Amino acid sequence: MNVFQIPLPAVTDEGLAIDAESPGADLRPEGAAELLLGSVHLKGTLSNDGDEFIFNGHLETTYLGQCDRCLGPAETPFRTDVLWIFVQGTSPQPSEEFEDDEEDATLDDGVIRAYFEDNILDLRGAAWEEIVLGTPLKQLCSETCAGLCPVCGTNLNESSCDCRTAEDSETLENKGLQGLKDLYPDMNPDRLED
Ligand SMILES: [Zn+2]
Ligand SMILES: [Zn+2]
Predict the structure, then answer these.
(1) Where are the domains of the chain?
(2) DSSP character at residue 114
(3) Ligand 1 center to residue 168 CA distance, Å?
(4) Cys staple from 67: which of 74, 86, 91, 124, with CB 3.0 to 4.6 Å?
(5) Model pTM?
């Protein structure tokens, strides 16, 4: 059993303190797209309120992936406060598809509501959903990554190249004013600053 699966009898009137760490891959629901993750750390309190169980705490993990600029490995840490409400019973909109479940479960207030029937409360689905929602649109190996030369592909973090006159708008954009000066060496720098 995964450490994110909680036997309900363990939740006393005072609630159950949870401090659990699981490999990210173990949380992935069947059929969901893979995500490259470090371990996932969940910390907080699970309390019982009648038919509902409420988990209040935070989740931490690291997205592992590829740097958007240089294609090298990138790690993006993630931490989010979470409030999950688990309702005993069946979902009013049962669905075979995980994607649909995911949409049904999240309301606009950012609170995840899910349903459970067994005597074991499985926190993996909610954790996975938080992680999917937090996925960064792009990752960088570092804020100052110089990227690849768009002309010759040289990794500019490791070495340099002689493609600086390239008429690539991205090069110009990345280099800003300096790029302009490189492209138009005759231009009076004072006029550029205006
Ligand atoms: Zn990079
Ligand atoms: Zn180059």
Answers:
(1) 5-134, 146-194
(2) E
(3) 19
(4) 74
(5) 0.72
